[in-house]
Amino acid sequence: MTSPTSPPTVSERVSASKVPEVTIWFWLIKILCTTVGESFADWINVRLGVGLYTTALDFTAVLAAMLAIQLRLTRYAPFTYWLTVVIVSVTGTLYTDILTDKLGVPLAVSTTVFSVALAVVFGVWFARERTLSIHSVTTRPRELFYWLAVLVTFALGTAAGDWTLALTGWSAGVSVLLPGGLIVAVVVGWRAGVNAVLSFWLAYILTRPLGANLGDWLATPRADHGLGLGPGLTSTIFLAMIAAAVVYLMATRVDVIERWQKKTPATPARKVSALSTVGYYTVVVLATGALLHWVSTQPHRDTGDAASEDDVPARVTSSARVPAPLASAVFPPASIALYRSITQDALARVRAGDQQTVKTTITGLETAWDHDQDQLQPINSATWSSLDHKIDAVLKSIRAAKPSVDDETRTLTTLLTSLR
Description:
About 70% of the residues lie in helices and about 0% in strands.
């Protein structure tokens, strides 16, 4: 889908377009970039054990460097542009993960915050430039607004996608269907004549959870209904596909806006009224909300909430709960001993009233557990999931805005019981 070219505004044109034409290549590479954003961030943070904060700081620095290079260009350069998008994808994912995993911000809250932030960016952008069209990114202010909007859309897409998983309990493979279906709805609306710029940005946001869920599905072990490629291999495959597509675009320049406009003269597009546009997307939003509400009321194990198995709603029958073997019976003894040691240390600090230190201590458990995920989860998915829920419950209780010693003691004791 494309967005219409807007008339000149108060901003003086200083360059050719700095972004690509919106073709099938644009959407294909965008989805590939979002998949890399999810899998590559997980690979560096978890598999390599770099840590979430360090990874986020590193990629923020890389993003600043790439944006400086991008801003110095005078026209669209496929390699620089799409490399910047990849870095933005990883960075936006990491920012959302920090809010959720480190600061304990609920996904509903972070989704709302990023939605408001994006609305503010668009509001200021439009008030100053009188256009949000991708075809108008020909001045420095518009380019800055563009990249800020792109960064927020990645963070918003990550939060909204994870929130959807938490509400529904869907596997990564199934969860691909929702953003995919919504993108189809956006395309249908665009073809029918609803606002092209609005349709473009809605599709841009939706490609984030689509690509992320696709990446999760490919990387997730087969025991958990994934393809078992792992985040490292998934990232490598998709980076190679991005590189091949970008090389093709560099050779053919088929996505250069100026060349596209010369080959395809502008023709009047069918348009519907603003009221019809609002009405159409209102129906889409209400239908999506109704679907998510219905799914959230069905029996499922919540994969996105930091709750222990004891917190699973009563509507989940006992037959749905498959007993997990003891951790020590299936996992390496050295790993279990490390987890027990950290948990016992945290419990002792809680009982001593040392709340500040216990947060640091429990971060060590989180880091060790995340680092070992790729090794442990394939061994026995049921046991891994059981422990993962209990560790999440510990993290939630300790990182609560107002920690309760009773809750911390209960979750830590439950975890210790399972680490035997």
